[in-house]
């Protein structure tokens, strides 16, 4: 039951992320939330979540250097 609930929540987050790509909204937040829900059960989602975290950290460091 718990696995099913997490998968349904991940699908809802992914659909909201797709919706917010078209209309203005926090699509990245919902995409990461969907990956987080999937990462509890699937190792491939955990790998993508780690890649996203590394990418966002590098992007924030680069943005911080430009703004200083």
Condensed summary:
The chain is mostly helical. It contains three helices and no strands.
How much is the radius of gyration in Å?
14 Å
Overall spatial form: flat
Q: Give the class from helix and strand content and strand pairing.
A: mainly alpha
How many helices does DSSP assign?
Answer: 3
Helix content: over 70%
The topology string of helices and strands comes to HHH
Main beta-sheet strand count, sense and barrel state: none
Q: Which ranges are low-confidence, i.e. pLDDT below 50, for 5 or more consecutive residues?
A: none
Total number of beta strands: 0
Strand share of the residues? under 5%
What number of domains?
1
Taking the alpha carbons of the first and last residues, their distance comes to: 49 Å
Mean pLDDT: 93
Question: What would you note in describing this structure?
Answer:
By secondary structure, this protein is mostly helical. The protein is 87% helix and 0% strand. It has helices at residues 2-22, 27-39, 43-67. The radius of gyration is 14 Å and the shape is flat. The mean pLDDT is 93.
